[in-house]
Design a protein that fits this description.
InterPro entries: Aa-tRNA-synt_II, aa-tRNA-synth_II, aa-tRNA-synth_II/BPL/LPL, Asn-tRNA-ligase, Asp/Asn-tRNA-synth_IIb, NA-bd_OB-fold, NA-bd_OB_tRNA. This protein is an alpha+beta fold and about 425 residues long. The chain is about 30% helix and about 25% strand. About 35% of the residues are buried.
Length: about 425
């Protein structure tokens, strides 16, 4: 007898197999019962017929409790009524370990209760689907960059300064020195790009921003490519190609999970290159026409502004060339309008906001040095970063994509807390 996993079912139609599972739910009526089985690779139904397994075994089935672990044996059958397409005609089962009083029952639970039990909530069908989509985005990210000549690098998590010159950092002691949890790997990725040409990093970042919005986490993961000899327009092309690639990969490989989440697939199918591009100036003018009288030139956009702009398009949209005064010190000045910089935010549709921020980086030593001073930053702290412009500087660009916001958008879930296995929120460090 072959021991298989649920996601291998289509390879064993008509065969008797054994699967290690948990009992997600069950129901019975008279002489037939139904098991909702899960094993980590997927969910499927097990059909238990009293006449096939005997009265004693059928009574044992009726006594099974939610999340009891089992070995089940039976015949794989096609099932066109289910979205999965297959079911198990159960011939026998063996209890591995009982589950008593499982707290997350098939009923409505409050968000705080579910978050307190996040270690168990992950087992649910919806959360399983979100994590599978997250994994596919990660897998296709590595595929995209490996196929396009990028080298993976790993910036440090402990840093001696703030890459973006902000005070919203987590401070710690590094023996006798002050250190901070990284808010971005960008500066180190730039150094790596000067050695390796095109690089990308993928790792955790931390923001001590006291925000409770549905778009924010305290700890989140960033994909951050940096590319030597790439200008701003070159970078925008990479961004739209990359986002298109991960969306199409999820559509291809996670269609069942998207259907589990009731995601509107038609909206994702529209995500193809090229993406619309509007300037910051045009965005402000558009917002005024839409009745947003609160926004003035020089202001950063908030969630309502980004949503209004995104709703005007049916795919992600670039907002380019923001005012220099509201952007970090390292961004290249736009020679056509020195009050702005060569940067872009990529706004996801359907109200999910910014998923990418990127720019061309300053490549002139004197300009960068002056910008560091203008921002009130310490030259000595950024000495190594200035060195990159001292020894063979070249035009270069990069960007950062926030994984959790991207998962939320592609999955269609309302809050980023469901896109991380164990999210860290303003008032949550448990479990």
């Amino acid at each position: 007898m072959k021991k298989i996993t649920i996601n291998q079912s289509k390879q064993f139609v008509g065969e008797t197999v054994k699967i290690g599972v948990w009992l997600a739910n069950k129901r019975s009526s008279g002489k037939i019962g139904f098991m909702q089985l899960r094993d980590g690779t997927g969910f499927m139904q097990g059909v238990v017929v009293k006449a096939n397994i005997g009265e004693d075994k059928f009574d044992q089935f009726k006594a099974l409790t939610q999340e009891t672990s089992l070995y089940v044996t039976g015949i794989i059958k096609e099932d066109t009524r289910s979205s999965f397409g297959y079911e198990l005609e159960v011939e026998n089962f063996e209890v591995i370990s009982d589950s008593t009083d499982y707290p997350i029952t098939p009923k409505e639970h409050g968000t705080e209760f579910l978050m307190d039990n996040r270690h168990l909530w992950l087992r649910s069908k919806k959360q399983h689907a979100i994590m599978k989509i997250r994994n596919e985005i990660i897998r296709s990210t590595f595929e995209f960059y490996n196929n396009n000549g990028f080298t993976k690098v790993d910036p440090p998590i402990l840093t001696g300064s703030a890459p973006e010159g902000t005070s919203e950092l987590f401070h710690t002691k590094y023996f006798e020195e002050d250190a901070y949890l990284s808010q971005s790997g960008q500066l180190y990725a730039e150094a790596s790009a000067m050695a390796l040409g095109k690089v990308f990093s993928f790792g955790p970042t931390f923001r001590a921003e006291k925000s409770k919005t549905r778009r924010h986490l305290i700890e989140f993961w960033m994909i951050e490519p940096e590319m030597a000899f790439y200008d701003h327009d070159d970078s925008l092309e990479v961004q739209e190609q990359y986002v298109t690639h991960i969306v199409q990969s999820v559509l291809k490989n996670c269609r069942l999970e998207l259907e589990t989440l009731d995601r509107d697939l038609a909206k994702l199918e529209k995500v193809t290159t090229p993406f619309p591009r509007i300037t910051y100036d045009d965005a402000v003018e558009f917002l005024h026409k839409e009745g947003f009288d609160d926004i003035e030139w020089g202001d950063d956009f908030g969630s309502p502004h980004e949503t209004a702009i995104a709703n005007h398009y049916d795919k992600p949209v670039f907002i380019v060339n923001y005012p220099k005064a509201i952007k970090p010190f390292y961004m290249q000045v736009n020679k056509e309008n020195p009050k702005t910089v060569l940067c872009a935010d990529l706004i996801a549709p359907e109200g999910y906001g910014e998923i990418i921020g990127g720019s061309e980086r300053m490549d002139d030593y004197d300009e960068l040095k002056q910008s560091i001073l203008d921002h009130g930053l310490d030259l000595e702290t950024y000495g190594w970063y200035l060195d990159l412009r001292k020894y063979g500087s070249v035009p270069h660009s990069g960007f950062g994509l926030g994984l959790e916001r991207t998962v939320a958008w592609i999955s269609g879930v309302d809050h980023v807390r469901e896109t991380s296995p164990f999210p860290r929120l303003l008032n949550r460090l448990y479990p």
